[in-house]
Amino acid sequence: MADQDCLFCKIVAEEIAADIIYESDDAIAFRDINPQAPTHVLIIPRRHIATINDLQPGDESIVGNLHIAAKQIAAVEGLTDEGYRLVMNCNEAAGQTVFHLHLHLLGGRIMNWPPG
Ligand code: 5GP
Ligand code: ZN
């Protein structure tokens, strides 16, 4: 069920434009508006799930499919061999600002560890 006030639900519904580069039955992916790396893609479930804390038994395929999508997008972006980072922030302390589950795919530069 879409959340009326959710930015990413509006992107799923095509009420707000985004550079969508991947679509499946249960997920879409689009380029981040404020990229932190040469490739910065957000992969999101079509269904509104606010945070990792809201995942329930039965949601395994949704979460798994985000990662399968990430692998496929990384290949298209030419990142398979050099590598890339997948990040999912949960709540404010981790830096989550949009409360619709999303997997960041970052690549095209050297990533530092530990992250900031
Ligand atoms: P978070 O900080 O919640 O983990 O990540 C949210 C991401 O969404 C940020 O990297 C931010 O740049 C991106 N973002 C916020 N608003 C928009 C938007 O309207 N369009 C797109 N494409 N990305 C957005
Ligand atoms: Zn949403």
List the helices and strands and how they pair.
Blueprint lengths: L6 H6 L7 E4 L3 E5 L7 E7 L14 H17 L7 E4 L15 E5 L9
Antiparallel strand pairs: 1-2, 2-3, 3-5, 4-5
The structure holds guanosine-5'-monophosphate and zinc ion (ZN).
The site of zinc ion (ZN) has 6 residues, from helix 1.
* Total separate domains: 1
> What oligomeric state do these chains adopt?
single chain
What would you give as the CATH superfamily?
Answer: HIT-like
CATH topology: HIT family, subunit A
What small molecules does the structure contain? guanosine-5'-monophosphate, zinc ion
Strand ordering within the main sheet: 1-2-3-5-4
Structural class: alpha+beta
Radius of gyration: 14 Å
At the first level of CATH, the class is Alpha Beta
Instruction: Give the CA-based shape.
Output: globular
Total of DSSP H or I helical runs spanning 4+ residues: 2
CATH architecture: 2-Layer Sandwich
Content of β-strand: 15-25%
Structure characterization notes:
- The structure is a single chain.
- The chain has 116 residues and is an alpha+beta fold.
- The chain has a single domain, classed as HIT-like (HIT family, subunit A, 2-Layer Sandwich), CATH 3.30.428.10.
- Helix content is 20%, strand content 22%.
- The protein contains two helices and five strands, in the order αβββαββ.
- It has a five-stranded antiparallel β-sheet, with helices on one face.
- The structure holds guanosine-5'-monophosphate and zinc ion (ZN).
- The site of guanosine-5'-monophosphate has 12 residues, from loops.
